[in-house]
# Entry
Amino acid sequence: MTKEELIAKLKTIVQPYIQDEEAFKNLSENTDFINDLKINSANLVDVILDVEDEFDIRIENDEMEKMTNVKEAMTIVNKKLAK
Amino acid sequence: MIGNDIVDLKQAAIDSPDSFIEGKRYQRFLYKVFTESEQELILFAKDKYQMVWLLWSIKEAAYKVNVQQFGKRFFNPKRIQCELISLEKGYVKIDNETYFTTSKITKDYVYSLATLTNITSIKSKCFKIKNPSYLKQSETLKKRLLESLNINCAMVKKNGIGVPKLFINEKQLNYSLSLTHHGNYNGYAIL
# Structure
């Protein structure tokens, strides 16, 4: 999967939970889920579950700890898919 | 230092269908968020759904204090461990730190406060704002907070890690603040 494809998939996953449309439109690798998209932390759990389902992977709590932005989410998904 | 957190129970039902026992991913949701002893509290609670969000709001409130203390954010709800003394009182451990918590439960929301010491003189309030816009609610919340303080020309600004701070003429005041917003409910706490 290319970087662009992965970002596009993540974008679809986070869409239901975002509270800042402008930041969502401009979503990039550097977008933070909480500071930029204003996703509330309860919905961050949903994002993680959705990522697990979409890519058929399981994310441990210590990995989830860093998953608060697009870049980290991409790193973790890529690491899991490479296994 | 102080942290507060509110959960609009109706909003949570819409946003997080996995937090219901009937939810398709209920078990996975519980496992991601709650320690074993917290899962037991939920299992034996009269109102399981309410217990899920009570524990959540307690964790969030304590986490907000922790971020002010150490300046570092993280997302790992299980690292934040709750113990309840009653539905209204409890404490939280994050690594080696202990936080004291108090909560208020109504049929519409759960609201929790966390502090480093067992103090009772906290200025805090929670209320309903019926406006779906995130920005409008955030503005109203800040306005109400400033009104309650009765300080002229003060401003609330978030610092680099998202902690709200009080300023007068660009000068930061030495208050600990916490703001919370969810669905139609908002709250603030000052120490």
Remarks:
- Residues 55 and 64 of chain A are 15 Å apart (CA to CA).
- The two ends of chain A are 14 Å apart (CA to CA).
- Chain A has one domain: 3-82.
- Chain A touches chain B through 23 residues (CB under 8 Å).
